[in-house]
Amino acid sequence: MTRWLTLLVTLSLLVGCGTQVTRLDPDQTMDLSGSWNDTDSRLVAEEMIQDALSHPWVSQFTSRAGQAPTVIVGTVRNLSHEHININTFVNDMERSLINSGRVSFVASSQERTEIRQERIDQDLNATEQTRNAAGNETGADFMLKGQINTIIDVASDDQVRYYQVDLTLISMKDNRKVWLGQKKIKKLVENSKLRY
Amino acid sequence: MTATALHAAIRSSLYALLLVGIGLLQGCAIQQWQSTGIGRYLDSHSLADTLTELASQTPANRDRPMYLLNLGLVHHLLGNYQHSNRELEAAKAALERVQALSVTEGFTSSTINETFNDYSATPSERVLLHVVMALNYLALQDLDSARVEVLQSDVRMRQLGDEAAELASARFVAGLVFELNGERSNAMISYRKAEQILTRRKLAIPLLLQDRLLTNSRRLGLESEYRNYLDRFQYRPIPLPDNHGEVLVLYLNGKVSSMHQRRISIYAPSLEHNVTISQPFYPPRKPSLGAGSMLRLGDRGVTLELLEDVDALAREALQASQSKRVALSLARVATKHKLVKNSREKDPLLGLLTDLAAILTEVADTRSWNLLPATIQIGTVQLPAGTYSPQQGSDSAPTLVVRAGMTQLLIANSYGYQTALTYN
Fold this sequence. Notes:
Chain A has 196 residues and is an alpha/beta fold. Chain A has five helices and six strands.
């Protein structure tokens, strides 16, 4: 009896050692290593875009031009200590801007290259009724640029990580900076001193 | 079953377990030989063959960081920069996981041997990981990512707080990256730190570093510092002649020495059994290792000077850990003596087997990042605009195109592979 019980307990433990997958809500905050993660990207993007849209440049442009401003995302540079996937951060910002309904959005320079290639192809191969001619693009009124910087303070196994995200909205007409946004995040990362 | 029969059965089981244990522990020693033997393999095979050999290995978990470091470096030397970064990023994560002090490793180190420890890399190896990754990103023309690695190397050096981890090569590469980024102040600070490290180590300041210090201090208006360098250095920056371009060379030369094991086993009459001690050591250093070399570019030569003596760093790291290793060796001698004595008191054959186990399990930890270059060298040359054929020994390396008025950075190695990128 004892032998069977021991075998059962041992098997249970071995099963428990296998790979486990737990599905999480995409909006759930989960900090594993202390590095920049999806939560940081989403929160910073949402808060900064909310801040940008709450400033007068939108209403000023709308009242002057009679339409919503068109925005393009320019370069967002990673000047931090981590390999941050800037693309997810830019995508989060684009999503926040578009979903606000207060601005229009145009494709970035990288995205446009493929679209223009497709137009050239359509010019050669598509029917006249269905082809999309070149020269009809909507120009952006404002460009959003930015950078992510970090300051790291380290002592033995512990680190204080300070992230600063700076975004600037620049008028394409006259290079005026119409909005400057900044978001700071500070994390204390205490690495384990002992392991098994 | 009678008590005698039960006793005999238990004794037989113990003999069997001990023999199995000896076999398993010898298996661990063989596995270590395989993972450290890659250095010797490269001595007699090509880089491509070494990559194939590495790819065929399945390292133990404890050796995985070392395996990933070697795999990443071989990819870098072959010019597979993306693959290199993938493996080195995995090595970074693996090394982070083993930085905390391990309870079980403390036990096994003082009872069996240190080969059961997770490989955690020396301080200089941890910094060199970032240097290689920065070079990879530079070769991939990803300047921002190269900058990330340079910043990470700075954090690492601060975190380690060890003079042995302050590398001139890391600071110099940082300077190059900052200069490429237009961050002249940061570049100047990095070059200055590189010079300070070399001075502290009593090594000559390479002409290329002298050139960067003079050029940047003048550009930044640091007149007093500029005059100080003029007084110290015999070198004077030479204006680029017409129709000439400049080539800055960063060269990974040779291969670092591999560790060997020295084992001494003597019979101690007072203890009535063998006492065995195993320690890692480096064989004598080749006399030519620290000297500069010459890189051929077509029919032209570039004089290269020592920036980092990686082989010397490896030997210093071994020396620095000597007192700890000796203490652990003595702890193991005491533990194994107690085991042998207790076993012999129970049963002579058991005592003999335990003595045998004690001898065979005394294996030195000879693991290291043993495919690292022996030295990192730098040089500069002004060449007439034109195309220069690759180094001897590598037909697949791209030609170097020198353009008038332009500066190019050439990342090359002694296996004949190189990559050039425009510096300005």
